[in-house]
Structure to design on (105 residues):
């Protein structure tokens, strides 16, 4: 399960280097790894290896708290033509929050 932690660490490093796009990718991958592990522990075969697909899948999880459903929405947002998020959000922090909930449940 430490895979998601290393992805979050890579996200932080990318942000420190001014590579926000790479930081977003790593934050999404971290969430995808945590979702895959969560589903596997629940006896559900993950429907995809794609972090984006897994984020879209987990949005429908009835046990997922509303604030974390919002996190999944943020993590699946498309960037603008300027390669920016259309909202103000820290995807690294939000991904970490989602991952921690998935690990505990």
């Amino acid at each position: 399960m430490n895979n998601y932690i290393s992805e979050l660490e890579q996200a932080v490093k990318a942000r420190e280097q001014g590579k926000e796009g790479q930081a977003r990718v790593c934050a999404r991958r971290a969430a995808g790894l945590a979702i895959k592990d969560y589903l596997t522990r629940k006896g559900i075969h993950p429907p995809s290896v794609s972090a984006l697909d897994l984020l879209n899948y987990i949005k429908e999880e009835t046990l997922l708290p509303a604030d974390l459903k919002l996190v999944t929405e943020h993590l699946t947002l498309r960037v603008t033509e300027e390669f920016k998020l259309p909202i103000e959000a820290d995807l690294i922090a939000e991904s970490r929050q989602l991952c921690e909930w998935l690990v505990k449940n």
Remarks:
- The helical segments are 2-16, 20-41, 51-58, 66-75, 91-104.
